[in-house]
Amino acid sequence: MKYFRIEGxxxxxxxxxxxxxKNSILALLxxxxxxxxxxxxxxxxxxxxxxxxxxxxxxLGAKTSFHDHTITVDASGADGSEIPAERMLRMRSxxxxxxxxxxxxxxxxxxHPGGCAIGERPIDLHLWALRQLGLAISEEYGILNCxxxxxxxxxxxxxxxxxxxxxxxxxxxxxxxxxxxTLYNAACEPELVDLQNYLNLCGAEIRGAGSSTVVIRGKSSxxxxxxxxxxxxxxxxxxxxxxxxAGGEIVIENARPEHFRPVLEAARQMGAEITEGGxxxxxxxxxxxxxxxxxxxxxxxxxxxxxxxxxxxxxxxxGTSIFYENIFENRFQQVSELAKMGAKIRxxxxxxxxxxxxxxSGADVxxxxxxGGAALMVAALGAQGVSRVFGVDFIDRGYETPxxxxxxxxxxxxxxxxGSITWLIKDSKPExxxxxxxxxxxxxxx
Length: 446
Ligand code: UD1
Prior knowledge:
The protein contains 14 helices and 25 strands. By secondary structure, it is of the alpha+beta class. It has 2 domains: 2-19 and 231-426, UDP-n-acetylglucosamine1-carboxyvinyl-transferase, Chain; 22-228, UDP-n-acetylglucosamine1-carboxyvinyl-transferase, Chain, CATH 3.65.10. The strands form 7 sheets. It has a 4-stranded mixed β-sheet with strand order 21-22-1-23. The chain has a 4-stranded mixed β-sheet with strand order 2-14-16-15, with helices on one face. Strands 4-5-3-13 form a 4-stranded mixed β-sheet, with helices on one face. Strand 11 (205-207) and strand 12 (214-217) form a beta hairpin. The longest helix is centred in the middle third of the chain and has 14 residues, at 233-246. It is elongated, with a radius of gyration of 22 Å. The relative contact order is 0.15. The chain binds uridine-diphosphate-N-acetylglucosamine (UD1).
């Protein structure tokens, strides 16, 4: 069993640079399949989801390589249209290859995508939008098939919700089409601007990404391009929350403050001193203040991906913080695990009330999704004693070697793996966790 062993209670100091954005490179890799040439992506994070995307590209016939944070995709001879089921089931963004393959080859087949279980996560908006673009889509025994005899056509369409994935789906598919597409109520996340700029370098004609109306003038072919992936705003937000939780003063390099403004503002309200320039310097207060209300919403609102990690810091703040999760219906999975560290959090539907405690204590905790896992690491950094955070595979989906990044800030985090585990059960003294009781992995006490 793999886990991160974290000795909490050490103030952070020093500098850390964020990696390239996971949510950007996943869409960029799907878009690279449209190209009739070679694309080179710099500043790519080495994540399991990125590796999965490369496997999909390989299965579709593209040639890929990944060295030293640089990915090369040669999609020139590729004409595959069936996305392997085992890849589809591993991550949600695999659905973007459905539109890309249909635009390139006139047909595509896949199963419904998997990904973190943070809600129902339907793909109805993706399929609806693709139908508007002229694709005939059928579903039998869970397998989605689509084809178009006339090619992708342009359309004017309005999303009923500004879904990030559905916006990417439309931009990618319509880039290689016969007409002009106007997408209203599009998502405005910065990753969409990254996607637009890369596609335009490949010869596409897209404008408006980053606003709620995106116009795509379709092209009959696209070339490849060289592109540097934007910095990961959620990794930056995670480092920010780490120093709020553990205390200390750090500098985050290679992040753009305008990309995660609501998280920075929340940290300021909680008492952090933050200076922004070429780098972001954050000094945590001696004791955090509670944050009266955080409500997640589409960009430029407070990002749902930062909800759990900020909640982990708020668990130690003075006073009561309220969190509303408005994007995904099952995104409080970290709460029961934070409670094992002593956090006092009540859930009522989409609202979580956090009554800050002066200290948290180390515990064995298990991630159930990517950002929930990051939240447990954030809490463990600020807790007294040792924590072991299980569910490492979730965390590896979105953070490249988080143990190295945190160690460079003076934290004590080790990636460990043991065949069998005895659970660490805290005694009543949070400062010195003891193995008062050991329990086997089956849950039986001994
Ligand atoms: C992307 C991000 C994810 C982030 C999320 C919201 C990637 C790889 N992932 O996910 O980290 O948390 O944006 O910022 O970029 N919905 C539907 N039908 C659809 C599509 C979405 O009902 O066809 C709903 C979802 O269930 C959810 C909401 O819309 O409730 C937002 O989802 P969406 O913006 O599409 O998120 P993702 O693209 O999956």
